[in-house]
Amino acid sequence: MENIIFEKYSNIVDKYSDLILKAERYIFANPETGFKEYKTSKYMEDAFEALGYTIHRAEGITGFYADVDTGRPGPKVLIFGELDSVICAEHPEADKETGAVHSCGHNCQCAALLGIAAALKTPGALDGLSGSVKLCAVPAEELLETEYREELRKKGIIKYYGGKVEFMSRGYFDDCDLAFMVHTTSVEGSHCLLVRKGSNGCISKNVVYKGVAAHAGGAPNNGINALYAANMGFNAVNALRETMVDGQYVRIHSIITNGGQMVNAIPSEIAVETQVRGMSNDIIKMANDKVNRAYAAAAASIGAKVEIHDRPGYSPVENDDTMIEIFEKVANMCTTPDKVKINNVRGGGCSDIGDIQMVMPAIHPNVSGATGKGHGSNYYITDPESACVFSAKFQLVYLHELLKDDAKEAKRVIANAKTPYKSMEEYFAAIDAFCKDREAVIYEEDGTVTLDI
After folding, report:
1. CB of 224 within 8 A of CB of 266?
2. Digits of tens for pLDDT over the chain (453 positions)?
3. Angle, helices 321-334/2-14, rounded to nearest 10 degrees
4. Is residue 424 within a helix (H) or strand (E), and if so which, with residue range?
């Protein structure tokens, strides 16, 4: 029976393989970063509508969703495809103007999502299933260009930097009970499926050091060098690394987004973007407090000022245990046992699927089909059949396993789920607490200095 189910969906998806692979190539050739995926979103919207779907576009931003009902009551399963690319200007296929490139595999997610959408419109695809499905093409998974996203936030266009979090805040997922998505990965072999227990969450930080400009050669003593303050901040953070506890997966990394205007002037303003990662929100807060102290103390040491702007990034990824159990069963229905791997080691990266998992059970497995380093200059989709077509087949079999027999397995997942927050309201209150703006060094008239961290 299990082979019959895989064969059923395999035969359906194969009819749409050209549609799937064409989408992968178009999206790869038109990379766009978060909340700018205009071509990608429209391509997917047009394709969904051509299949007969009524789509619900996100107001004011990219992305959309569409619903599929089996006609029988039951839970609603949310399935994602991510629209955005990363920036890696040195990639040979990067956009010459923006540096954007799909060295992340999101083009394959969208292609597979389109294949799933096409398959679910095929007569007989929903036979024996109960409940409903929400197919979501979501923007802005990669947490980058935060200055741009902050401008969108200030204008009231978005509230959160991540697409899934933003969609959640708008109520788009209020009717959903559990979720999954599949990402490409660089492992040898076709049709490999793997999942790990989880990975990090993070805070997103924009830090602005402010000094005093002066002639760098003629009178540097009259200036306060904001770049030196930033460099000392980096060194102070590096000195903290040995205080981080093994197993907490703390990661701290920064870039300078504005390093000064001209070399013969003392830099008066330096902008820094930082992410602080960890395996739980409590660990992230602990590490972030240390980072804020280091940044503020560095500024105070030479009389500079520093503004620290903290925003919620992404919550830690915690793949649901019951959904992992079902993953193993379904994966072995779709491929050979030697190509199925469950890894209990956590990852250091982040994804806003973690925010979904804060309020509903969800899983984020990987499928083979890529080579090279993720986000790097040598990342390519070298096996699009595995990364896109096979991915769609696996996801349909997984969906079938959840919703067959009166959605027995989906109901078991929901009953066993142990999400960190009991409601959307509780979750948003927790992440909103990360959102802070402060002038971190206060100089009093009596000469005392106060750090507001």
Report:
1. yes
2. 458 999 999 999 999 999 999 999 999 999 999 999 999 999 999 999 999 999 999 999 999 999 999 999 999 999 999 999 999 999 999 999 999 999 999 999 999 999 999 999 999 999 999 999 999 999 999 999 999 999 999 999 999 999 999 999 999 999 999 999 999 999 989 999 999 999 999 999 999 999 999 999 999 999 999 999 999 999 999 999 899 998 899 999 999 999 998 999 999 999 999 999 999 989 999 999 999 999 999 999 999 999 999 999 999 999 999 999 999 999 999 999 999 999 988 888 889 999 999 999 999 999 999 999 999 999 999 999 999 999 999 999 999 999 999 999 999 999 999 999 999 999 999 999 999 999 999 999 998 999 988
3. 80
4. helix 424-432
Query: Looking at residue 375, what DSSP letter applies?
Result: T
Residue 274: helix, strand or coil by DSSP? strand
What's the CA gap between 417 and 419, in Å, rounded? 6
* Tally of CB atoms within 10 A around 376: 15
Domain extent listing, the chain = 2-197+319-420, 201-314+430-451
Q: Spell out the CATH class of 2-197+319-420.
A: alpha beta
d(CA 302, CA 268): 13
* CATH classification number, 201-314+430-451, choose in 3.40.50.10190, 3.40.50.1780, 2.60.120.10, 3.30.70.360: 3.30.70.360
Q: Tell me the two tokens of residue 128.
A: 């024996």
Q: Tell me which residue of 202, 105, 227 sits closest to 146, measured CA to CA.
A: 202
Q: Provide the residue type at 79 as one letter.
A: I
